[in-house]
Amino acid sequence: MATKLKTMMDRLPAERRTRVKARAKELVAEELTLRDLRRARALTQARMAEILDIGQDGVSRLEQRSDLLLSTLRSYVQAVGGSLELIARFPDRPPVTLAGLAVPTPAEKPATRKRKPPKEATA
Questions:
Q1: CA distance linking residue 65 with residue 82, whole number of Å
Q2: Which of 16, 49, 68, 80 could form a disulfide with 56 if both were Cys (CB 3.0 to 4.6 A apart)?
Q3: Are 97 and 86 in contact (CB under 8 A)?
Q4: What is the arithmetic mean of pLDDT over 17-43?
Q5: Structural domains of the chain ordered from first start
Q6: Per-residue pLDDT averaged across 75-102, rounded?
Q7: pLDDT, tens digit, for every residue of 46-55?
């Protein structure tokens, strides 16, 4: 029969339980969705749309995607006031920060698209 987490935690000394709970809270805080990140910075989707020069619906779609271009992710993170670093972790060596990714070259266009102006009604 499997042992439940609560049973295991109850067996630990109080000090150890406190440390485990604190570390679990830290780990959960490190895992944020784009939506969580935007909300933590007190930004609305409408404000993000203005910053990124896209429609609010585009921000919503970005926040729901699980597969983004690095340049798009970089733009989003910069829009909330951060910077993006890509780190590769290996079991047999220290982490490696990958350079030159998601950095636009002068020839590249931004990852965001401008909205088309609304069509004018004809009288």
A1: 20
A2: 49
A3: yes
A4: 84
A5: 29-107 (1.10.260.40)
A6: 89
A7: 999 999 999 9
Cα-flanking dihedrals φ and ψ of residue 98, to 5°?
Answer: -85, 130
Residues 58 and 49: beta-carbon distance below 8 Å: yes
Taking CA atoms, 17 is separated from 3, 11, 26, 88, in Å, by 17, 9, 14, 31
| pLDDT at residue 108, rounded to an integer | 46
Of 23-37, 55-69, 100-114, the one with minimum mean pLDDT is 100-114
DSSP-derived 3-state class of residue 42: coil
Element (H, E) at 40: helix 34-40
pLDDT tier for residue 99 given thresholds of 50, 70 and 90: confident
Output helix, strand, coil percentages for the chain, rounded to the nearest 5. Answer: 45, 10, 45
For residue 82 the two structure tokens come to 């951060």
- CA angle at 67 for the pair 78 and 116, rounded to the nearest 5°: 65
Amino acid at 48: M
Give SS3 for 93: strand
C-alpha–C-alpha distance, residues 46 and 69, integer Å: 22
